[in-house]
Design a protein that fits this description.
- The chain is about 90% helix and about 0% strand.
- It starts with a helix and ends with a helix.
- It is elongated, with a radius of gyration of 21 Å.
- The protein is built from two helices and no strands.
- By secondary structure, the chain is mainly α.
């Protein structure tokens, strides 16, 4: 019983740390995309050969993929912990 309790504590702490890191990474990506778009539009005024829309779309897709990873990580965690709790209540 002690091992299970300790394992759950370690898993929960790791979950909190990873969720926090992924959340900060998402916030950084969103802010970076917004700032990059601002500077790319200012740069386009000086140089007509740049294409900021493609860079903005690429960065937006990267942030969307990171968000998808964040959501899938949370779903996986909830499913595993729910399954473990159901299994523990049966014993």
């Amino acid at each position: 019983m002690f091992i299970k309790d300790r394992t759950f504590k370690v898993v929960n702490i790791a979950y909190i740390i990873l969720t926090s890191l992924l959340g900060m990474l998402l916030i950084y990506g969103i802010i970076n995309t917004m700032v990059s778009l601002k500077y790319e539009t200012e740069k386009e005024i000086m140089d007509l050969h740049t294409n900021p829309a493609s860079d903005y779309i690429r960065q937006t897709l990267e942030v969307s993929c990171e968000f998808l990873a964040y959501v899938l990580f949370n779903i996986l965690y909830l499913l595993l912990m729910g399954h473990a709790k159901i299994r523990n209540t049966r014993q």
